[in-house]
Write a structure and sequence with these properties.
With 408 residues, this protein is an alpha/beta fold. The protein has four domains: 7-22 and 178-319, Molybdenum Cofactor Biosythetic Enzyme, Chain A; 24-47 and 143-177, Molybdopterin biosynthesis moea protein, domain 2; 52-139, Beta Complex (Molybdopterin biosynthesis moeA protein, domain 3); 329-400, Beta-clip (Beta Barrel), CATH 2.40.340.10. It has seven helices and 29 strands. The strands form eight sheets. The chain has a seven-stranded mixed β-sheet, sandwiched between helices. Strand 25 (345-355) and strand 26 (358-363) form a beta hairpin. The longest helix has 19 residues, at 301-319. The radius of gyration is 31 Å and the shape is elongated. It binds adenosine monophosphate and magnesium ion. Adenosine monophosphate binds next to strand 14 and helix 4.
Length: 408
């Protein structure tokens, strides 16, 4: 194996060993949001389910209104009214009209709707002041979706629009790929849970929280265990974690003599250990414990967040049946100088915004791997090519890791 992999090579190697989970679950629509469909969805009903009025007004027979104008209106007898949610129990015949509200069924016999603005109610009559075309202002049964039409395909990610369509065809639930079960293992004797006082020499376990949010955003189910720097505890925790779909560790996989994750993974499964040509992100470890996919992220919080984005998130999305695995990428104009990039491609936390017809991006601050403050407000990763020289006004590739801001 090559000593130093590119990001793309490492991503490909990981994705090659991931298969979509075969099981699906039927979830209530709001729980299904954000997940991938496990089957094609066929509509059992036409949409709209019946011919209905697109405007408030009068249902007429178009021929009865030929030549109508304000000066010589067509005078029609009003034979009834239909409100939204009602059924018309009468038909419209020659010389007749019915008052119909938007969305209400158009009575049999009528073949056009005339807007209320083009009419005048005169006692038992309505005066129509402009001629109607056959079919005007009527939404036909099945014109949006035909009965039996495939409205969504397997693998489609369910956003607001897709959930709306499922609701519109009457589905209360959707078949989605089951959530992946992830076991997050943080490691280190130096770590203390936030919310407690900080003893000398200790730091707070921030990865647990940052990574948990990142994992949950993929739709995966999450358990967390913390492992002290101890070979037996590490092996025990990894043995337990084998029951999950993915084991994600943070820290403990460097070359330090108190890094026990490597040897535990090797004894329970298989470990591939790579150096990937990026900054931040020390070696990233990858392999298997039992049947679970193993991804070992660096302990450093900034590196953990970035490597999760680049390597673990696409794997989880593939597991959960999504077709789109990676973040959207756009080109943006740099708002300030960055300077010279070293021999490894850098991923910098940045803030992307749309301004005057183009994308602009700026770094969120010092990028060294300990600088957690630059996580704040980051909605993008600026991709800085190795050995480049980046100046204000240059065009750079940017990964959108969150919704961009509007124009500020
Ligand atoms: P390690 O790879 O275990 O040597 O960790 C690298 C660096 O990341 C060390 O400075 C650790 O203290 C820090 N670190 C490891 N895990 C965490 C965590 N869960 N939260 C915050 N910092 C961590
Ligand atoms: Mg450690």
């Amino acid at each position: 194996m090559k000593d130093l992999l590119s990001v793309e090579e490492a991503q490909e190697l990981i994705l090659q060993s991931v298969q979509p989970l075969p099981e699906s679950v039927e979830m209530p629509l709001l729980e299904a949001a954000g997940r991938a469909l496990a089957e094609d969805i066929v509509s059992p009903v036409p949409i709209p389910p019946f011919d209905n009025a697109a405007v408030d007004g009068y249902a007429v027979i178009a021929e009865d209104t030929a030549g109508a104008s304000a000066q010589s209106p067509a005078r029609l007898r009003v034979v009834g009214a239909v409100n939204a949610g009602e059924v018309a129990h009468f038909a419209v015949g020659r010389g007749e009209a019915a008052h119909v509200m938007t969305g209400a069924p158009v009575p049999a016999g009528a073949d056009a709707m005339v807007m209320i603005e083009d009419t005048e109610q005169r006692g038992e009559e309505v005066w129509i002041k402009s001629p109607a075309r056959i079919g005007q202002h009527i939404r036909r049964q099945g014109e949006a979706v035909a009965r039996g039409e495939t409205v969504l395909r397997k693998g489609q990610s369910l956003g607001a629009g897709e959930i709306l369509v499922l609701a519109a065809i009457g589905r209360g639930t959707a078949p989605v790929v089951r959530p992946a079960r992830v076991c997050l293992l943080t490691t280190g004797d130096e770590l203390v849970e936030p919310g407690y006082p900080l003893p000398a020499g200790k730091i707070y376990n921030s990865n647990r929280y940052g990574l948990s949010v990142q994992i949950r955003e993929t739709g995966a189910q999450l358990e967390h265990l913390h492992i002290p720097d101890d070979p037996v505890a590490t092996r025990d925790a990894l043995t337990q974690a084998q029951a999950y779909d993915m084991v994600l560790t943070a820290g403990g996989v460097s070359v330090g003599e108190r890094d026990f994750v490597k040897q535990a993974v090797e004894s329970l499964g298989e470990l591939r250990f790579w150096r990937v040509a990026i900054k931040p992100g020390k070696p990233i470890a990858f392999g298997r414990v039992g049947q679970a996919l193993f991804v070992g992220l660096p302990g450093n919080p900034v590196s953990a967040m970035v490597t999760f984005e680049l390597f673990a998130r696409p794997a989880l999305r593939k597991m959960m049946g999504h077709h789109v695995l990676f973040r959207p990428r756009v080109q943006a104009i740099l708002e300030h100088d960055i300077g010279t990039i070293g021999g490894r491609r850098e991923y910098m936390r940045g803030r992307l915004r749309w301004s005057e017809g183009g994308w602009l991006v700026r770094s969120t601050g010092a990028q060294e791997s300990g600088m957690v403050a630059s996580m704040v407000g980051a909605n993008a990763l600026i991709v800085a090519p190795a050995r480049s020289e980046l100046r204000r006004g240059d065009t750079v590739d940017v990964l959108m890791i969150d919704l961009p801001l509007g124009s500020e």
